[in-house]
Amino acid sequence: MDALMAFLTVFITPKLLLLSALGTFAGVYVGAIPGLSVTMAVSILISFTFSWDVYPAIALMIGIYMGGVYGGSRTAILLNIPGAPSAIATALDGYPMAKRGEAGEAIGVTTVMSFFGGLVGIAVLALAAPFISDFALKFQPRDYMLLAVLGILLVGSLSSGSLAKGVFAGAFGLVIGAVGLDPLTFTERFTFGFEALTGGISFIAVMIGMFGVSEALLQLHTVSAPVIRQKISRIVPSFSVIKKYLPLSLQTSSIGVIIGALPGTGGDIAALLAYDHAKRVTKNPEREFGDGAMEGLVAPETANNAAVGGAFIPMTTLGIPGDAVTAIMIGALFIHGLNPGPMLMIEKPDMFWFIVGSLVAANCFMLLFGLTGLRLFTKIVEMPKSVLFPLIMLLSVVGAYAVKNAITDVYWMLGFGVFGYFMRLYGYPLGPVILGVILSRLLDDNWRRAIISEREDLGRFFEGVVSSPLSLTLFVAVVLIFLSQIPFRATFRRLTRRRSNVKEG
Q1: DSSP readout, 235-250?
Q2: CA of 358: how far to CAs of 40, 143, 355, in Å?
Q3: Phi then psi for 181, rounded to 5 degrees?
Q4: Phi first, then psi: what are they for 293, rounded to 5°?
Q5: Interior CA angle at 394 toward 391 and 400, to 5°?
């Protein structure tokens, strides 16, 4: 079977096309429900599809993956509850738009831009997979560690101008992510003798509590406020809107592909990096970021969907998963007698091109399903608050419990919800907490691997940073981002005024 026929297989086979559509539809709504992760859905599918032929199984899994990455944006916009970690940045500007009655416009833009980002990621997968994989292979443990530090420092961009509050929130997330058994030595960390903490704290419970429960508690202050009617007369954005944000979407799609191709990262980090990039390159946004800026929707949504194609690059060419979902898919390919890695494109090139075709089909279905059913979906935010907030609490409890079927996660969710409520009252951002939890393992593991490889010699470690162009670039980026958050001009003006006052006195 040649490459073109393998690519078109999913389109000319009704059964495969139907499975791709069903998977994408299910993925959109699984991704929209906090606690029901795409990773969980794909892992459950393996037990149902191991006896199937490989093409139907892969088409269904890819559909759920692509739909799920997009689906998290819906509840992020409507309820300020990201359905997935990759939608955290989307909530920052999407929810303020929903509160103004612009949920339809926000969802329309995120759908089209998610489609565009997905196409960019798939195109790079098809055309430049070997090159991107070679670049990803150059990352040493210290580079992954620096990448995690870079992500933590981005909290300054997510903290409404307060670097100190953002760093505190990010550091708190790092501590939460470190609770449990040490992955290298299997010793207990931050458990304080409680057996319930040895398994760690579910970041899903933290995420739902911080965003869902805290939002419900905070909105109790405005329970008597009038309901905002959502404007959904025009869901599909005009060509002029698409043209306006096309340059930014191309830039952030590139970020998504590169980050997605780095094993162990994924769409959540790509979305946050893209959001920070948008804040830096957008000079005069119509609205401030965090208050409903359209750029704040375009950037993360194009990046996290472009990261899907990027995640398949190391999986198909090196046998290394780009994220948790592709790790499960590697297992699925092994079950079906295939060996993902360098020999896959030589021995089974038809499988590679079938994967590319399935991604294109799923991306098209995502656009179709994303732009339909919005009138019913947006009715959620038009409910009376006396109905909506108990519903949010119910979804939060179900979502937290569904991950492990453990009531302990519900307790954690409620506790972090109350904590998040007080953080909001005192102006502390919640996004960096989740970012810290997600990056904790990446930072911890790769810091120790890097320092062990240098025989626990910090001097040799920094020698390696300076001698490696890639490490040096990341280190300089970390320093520049840190320095960019320091108000040098204001400090200089303040010192100048003091000196002039002293002279006049």
Answers
A1: -SPPHHHHHHHHHHHH
A2: 20, 32, 5
A3: -80, 135
A4: -70, 130
A5: 140
Nearest to 156 by CA among 500, 483, 497: 483
With beta carbons less than 8 A apart as the criterion, state whether 64 and 38 touch.
Answer: yes
Q: Distance between CA 339 and CA 336 in Å, rounded?
A: 9
Along the 505 residues of the chain, how does pLDDT read in single tens digits?
A: 577 888 889 999 999 999 999 999 988 877 776 656 677 677 667 767 777 888 998 899 899 989 888 888 887 888 777 777 778 888 888 888 888 888 788 888 889 999 999 999 999 988 877 666 566 667 788 887 887 777 666 655 555 556 677 778 888 888 888 888 887 777 888 888 887 788 888 877 887 788 778 877 887 776 666 665 666 666 777 788 888 888 899 999 999 998 888 766 677 778 888 888 888 888 888 888 888 888 888 999 999 899 988 888 878 876 666 676 777 777 777 777 777 766 676 777 788 889 999 999 999 999 998 888 776 666 655 667 677 678 778 877 887 787 678 888 889 889 998 998 998 888 887 777 877 787 787 788 888 888 888 777 777 888 888 888 888 888 888 888 777 766 655 565 666 666 666 555 5
Under DSSP, is residue 183 helix (H, G, I), strand (E, B) or coil? coil
Within 10 Å of residue 47's Cβ, how many Cβ atoms? 8
Amino acid at 175: V
Under DSSP, is residue 471 helix (H, G, I), strand (E, B) or coil?
helix
CA dist., res. 421 & res. 415, Å (int):
10
Measure CA 359 to chain center: 19
> Measured between alpha carbons, how far is 173 from 165 in angstroms, rounded to an integer?
12
Q: Are 67 and 25 in contact (CB under 8 A)?
A: yes
Report H helices in 33-85: 38-49, 54-79
